[in-house]
DNA sequence: ACTAATTTGTAAATCGGCATGACGAATAGC
DNA sequence: GCTATTCGTCATGCCGATTTACAAATTAGT
């Protein structure tokens, strides 16, 4: 019964939970974990000054966290300042681990991340998943998960949750895949197929990619738009450090934003959707190429080799993206736009026209567009880290299950 | 030093304030206020069961709130059930009041709202404000404010804050108007010109309109898109019961979403922005009418009279709005779209084509579009209520200043 | 080397705030 | 009238953070 990680914040004081002392304790435990996790080894006194509690209070909190195996005492710090040196505290390397999994069109991947953010175990398998039944794919995935879990346990870690990234729309129950065109899945509940030993979260690949960017990217703001693309074009909206999910969980469907209202018909019923200009299939067609296995690699290779058709196709896709993003930027006023996922490999040829278009359509200074450093492994890392963040956000919950 | 009302929620446990008993007390005071305010007269026991605290705890909280003048004891309730009847509690009709003000293109309005939401005093003045200097306009506004404040005090109310709605972009400091095309104002700091007796908040008219819809509308969801228009077209995005403001506070600029990327040039630098198809000036031009004083009234009148040119112009505007809203709905997945402000008067002729366009471009069931019941007085009410909500959200803050 | 100053971590006492349990008060049903 | 039920309050206790005090460990100064 853990709260889904990084849900939008609960409402105002009206409807939230009653505020009792236990809740206070829990929140303060969380603050200690966040402080230690974010700012490396820290003494009790340092934590106290950072989170605004007294040293005495922090002492008891830390005791509890150490007993739960979430924090480790590293011993006396090497001092440069006067006074008694503090004893360094760090998140435990043998505590809970976040298990992240990714179901891609042409691969499966699983990894385990410890509280400090280090990847401690991983496994993957290549091979097309398109059209295969959810059951078959998930069975293979479960095999990888067993492997990774065993590996993590071998290092003294205890899996605290599983988060699965899928290339498609996921309902707000974080269990059922409503539509995944790349896999030909519709309305499939993954809840029953995946291991049930620990809390499960299923979410859109783009969402997890955005969270990875938020947590792992350097200098990533708390308000940005994360764009990623495979066959469809997904975006994730990060507002004030949290994901915007929408009523049904479908927020971020950039692919069907109208770019040319009178353009060709789209499967969605509309006309001139972005997907028809910047979607993978559209770009391949415009470049005069056949759809093949590693589509993005093919495009990137040809573009790098100087293929003018491909470059033109990518330029045009960038322009279309620019139009759609102008709308999004006007509406959301984000601090930046980040291109992530598979898109980052094509960024060199997309970016110039995209930035041009965005700047041309913006009155003041245009919203900066950057490329994710994490690239295609963003979703997997984001998934694993989402479990870790859930632990940091409520350490008492996992401690209780220890 | 009050927190700005209804800012986006603070971050996760990492950066928030330390959690001490006083904070707990404050939050519980707020919960009591919200419960009583939302669900009419309530006994202490009823409040306790609603917010999950014990009767004893609620008793002390209520005592404090009564002493601060925020709650009133109405005496024994008329009972229908067995057992000792409870003593009804209601928000005070003599406590703090929210002062809301609106600067429109052709009018000024001010009102005072008590904690129960009733308007207790109001004043307005008609006359064009376009082109007049901020100083002159604000001086007139201050006169109205003085009037309303005096009226409120005459009824035993104590002004707790002032919120001003302006038809333009407001910086995140909630004080300076960055751009207000309808007034010809640019980068003007209203902080120094307005009365300084109580906390001040300046915000976009569309934002306050959306908040009014959220708080006063019946059955309004917690995630919706509120569209309003004067010369520009503004939208406000409500996510999980709070406003999405954007990094600079400019979120919701629907007017410059590209609708036809190759359309005519716009003042913003772009081409084919929504404003050029659905903006007031554009619609008037398309209808073959001259800009005049009461533009919206003129359009509504002609359309109602059956003027086919006007009706066509409004139909086309609705279609353009539909295209822009398709993008927005795809991106945000709101529960509904609400047409508010001056737009609501034109809704009968805009809605059909708007809904058509939105439905045509949506795969599943289209996002429902409704019209605000509050109409043009939404912004003023939203402003006044924002102050009231700030009191409900942190009663201890005003009690301290009592 | 010795002392003073400074900082850390912990222990004891205190305080604030909610829960618990008991009680008188006020009502409905019999 | 009697009982069951509900409401508001009081005394008590528990939990959690603060305050105050103190021993331990280091640097700076003489």
How does this model look, in words?
The structure is a homodimer of 402-residue chains. Chain A has helices spanning 21-38, 44-51, 55-67, 134-154, 205-216, 275-278, 280-286, 295-305, 308-332, 343-360, 378-393, 395-400, and strands at residues 71-76, 87-91, 96-103, 107-114, 119-126, 158-166, 169-170, 176-180, 185-189, 200-204, 224-229, 233-239, 242-244, 336-339, 369-371. In chain A, 40% of the residues lie in helices and 21% in strands. The two termini of chain A are 15 Å apart. Chain A is globular and about 70 Å long. In chain A, the strands form four sheets. A five-stranded mixed sheet of chain A has the order 5-4-3-6-10, sandwiched between helices. Chain A has a five-stranded mixed sheet with strand order 13-12-11-14-15. In chain A, helix 5 (205-216) packs across helix 11 (378-393) and helix 9 crosses helix 10 (343-360). Chain A has 402 residues and is an alpha/beta fold. Chain A is built from twelve helices and 15 strands. In chain A, a hairpin with a 4-residue loop joins strand 4 and strand 5 (119-126). Chain A folds into three domains: 21-91, Winged helix-like DNA-binding domain superfamily/Winged helix DNA-binding domain (Arc Repressor Mutant, subunit A), CATH 1.10.10.10; 96-210 and 379-401, ATPase, nucleotide binding domain (Nucleotidyltransferase, domain 5); 219-372, 2-Layer Sandwich (Nucleotidyltransferase, domain 5), CATH 3.30.420.40. The model of chain A is unreliable at 1-15 (pLDDT under 50). Chains A and B meet through helix 1, strand 12, helix 9 and helix 11 of A and helix 1, strand 12, helix 9 and helix 11 of B. Chain A binds a DNA duplex (30 and 30 nucleotides) through helix 1 and helix 3. Chains A, B: This is Xylose repressor. Chains A, B: Residues 1-21 are annotated as: Disordered. Chains A, B: Belongs to the ROK (NagC/XylR) family.
